[in-house]
Automatic annotation (TrEMBL), chain A:
Highest taxon above the source species: Bacteria
Region of interest (Disordered), residue spans: 161-181
Transmembrane segments: 6-26
Name of this protein: Uncharacterized protein
Keywords: Membrane, Transmembrane, Transmembrane helix
TrEMBL record, chain B:
UniProt GO cellular component terms: plasma membrane
InterPro entries: Diguanylate_Cyclase, GAF, GAF-like_dom_sf, GGDEF_dom, Nucleotide_cyclase, Rev_trsase/Diguanyl_cyclase
A GO term, aspect molecular function: diguanylate cyclase activity
Chain coiled-coil ranges: none
Protein keywords: Membrane, Transmembrane, Transmembrane helix
Pfam family, one: GAF
Protein's UniProt keywords contain Phosphoprotein: no
PANTHER family noted in UniProt: DIGUANYLATE CYCLASE DGCM-RELATED, REGULATORY COMPONENTS OF SENSORY TRANSDUCTION SYSTEM
Protein's name according to its UniProt entry: Diguanylate cyclase (GGDEF)-like protein
SMART domains membership: GAF, GGDEF
Amino acid sequence: MMTGFASFIIVLLFILMVLASGRFFYGRELKSRARKLSRTFHLEIPNMDYSFEQIVYFISLPTNIPSIRNASRDNLVIKLDYKSLIFPRLSGLKMYIKSEKEKILLAYLPIKDFRLPALDQILKQGKINESDYRNMSTCKLIHPATLKEINEEVYQQIQVGRKRRKPAGAADPEQRTVKAL
Amino acid sequence: MIAKYSLVFFLTIMTAVLANVFRFKLNATLNRWILIISSLVLVEVQGYLFDFQHTNWMLLLFIGVSVLSFGLRGGIIGIGAAWLILYAQCRVSDLSVGLTYLLFTAGIYMLIRHIGHLQSESEDWLGKLTENSRQLNVFKEVSLSMQQTFNLDKLLQTILTSVTAGHGLGFNRAVVMLMNEQGTKLHGIMGTGPMTSEEGYAIWDRITKHKYKLMELIEIKEKEKSSSDLKLNERVKKIEIPLDEPNFLAEVLEGDTPRHLQGIRADERDRVLQMLGREFNMSELAVFPLVSQGIKVGVLLIDNPVNRKPITANGIDSVLPLANQAAIAIHQSRLYMKVEDMALKDGLTGLHNHRAFQSLLTQHWPVSGEPPIALILLDIDFFKHFNDTNGHLLGNEVLIQLADVIRGSIRKHDQAFRFGGEEFVILLPDTEEKEAVLVAELIRNRVENTSFPGGDQQPAGRLTVSLGVASSRKMPSLTPMELVDTADQALYQAKESGKNRVVC
């Protein structure tokens, strides 16, 4: 005989498993589909060019806010912004400055604005549709190399603002791995 | 019993994982169906293993997932299905169970609606924040860039780049037309953007490859102004639109509000619109009046020929503050140029004045090893006699006509100035004395052969000039003012030795 409590635990376990593994399998499927599409169109996702300028900063950088001005790379956190728990859909990247005391939303990069010239061209030619586009651009966005570059770019913005910067992709070799939550 | 428990826990995990493995491979609707079916599978497995003991309330999971997946409709169908399953497998037809299902569905639905409402509100806020921050950032950068210059070309390039850069306001192409001084015509001044989509993608590709920022892009465009957007600018510069004839641009300027035009056809009644459609392949455009303190400066046109993205009301609103700021900057730049012009130009002849001469002489003065500079100082012979005979008004006309002759006789890089009174000076950079003498002789000859009003009243029967030439080659240790003095002495000799001649 099964107790009501055990049944409740089973229901709970099912819901938790669906929630916990949902984003993982969504991401896996996204990558798998993007890989197939990129093979079809002879594109290499890690090598596709994009612009940092789609990142929207909510705070004028460099700033005098002490917690941002003094932030280290460890304090910079990139969080994937999903729309739903049960039916996850990535809608952008949120960039925070996180310290023990506070968490400040610094910038946002909406997926809809993350446009890539290589994809724009094949979209215009009608070889892919908007859904395929979104699939591949999302895959490019969550690629560890992209996240690493975005992390470095945002850190540069905090340090020196928009006027001076290192050349594209000139990341500090000692920089740490990006925290994408 | 433990084995059964282990089995049901294992199957629960497997059902959830398998559902997630497969549902994301399919479209949104099938994704939802798989989740519903997996919840039903779990209910059934639990039922079979434990004699449907808790099936009546385990079915709440199935109903809940149905509501989550398809809203109220899904919930109602879920209740029906759950009721049938319960009856078929447990022979339960208790109304209270049905009522519980209904209340549960209503509760879940309200909760989901509330969460959905909160989520959509939050997304809406984030969207607004993102959009406004983007516009503010662009506006801030562009304002800063505009404040740093009075140069009209640079200003226009800044405005156009910020409107068209993908990370600016994101339009594919923009064109500025400015009004002439009389306010009768609009002239195409500058454009940025491609003529074809291929060209557009090539630009976009280059921007992303180098990861250019908006400010960098403005600087690059400024440096490459002669080579970038060549095809577009060739056509833009030919635009001349009369404002006394009815056309949509005149109406926009008159109405002082932006206008959005869609579905531009080849047979448009409006000739200007027809021309824009034909020459620039415009099928949809937005036009903004550039008006500063009530003064009409020009218009800004935007369109999307590359991605054919429709122009939205939000897009138009995002350009408006920039267009207003641009109008002020263009107006101020024009005023500044006017004042600068007045300060450096002679009001009568239109040539540069003595102040401009001093400044340019120092600027062009050769440093060691550089090619020499030459000067020609020119004076009208018997000009006092001319004024006494013909009056000062005719004297002024002669000065204007003489300035035209000088202007037409000097080379491309030479510059002519009114030195004062009836004296003129010509600055010849990178010029040897021999070449300067040739230019001086050409001027003398042309003046001699030009018919000036009242010229026949002169002692020689025509108006003539004397010219003194000096070059920095002869005495490299000369200062700029000493070179002027040398040219002045040569001019004096020309006068002394009979006038109407060149002396060096």
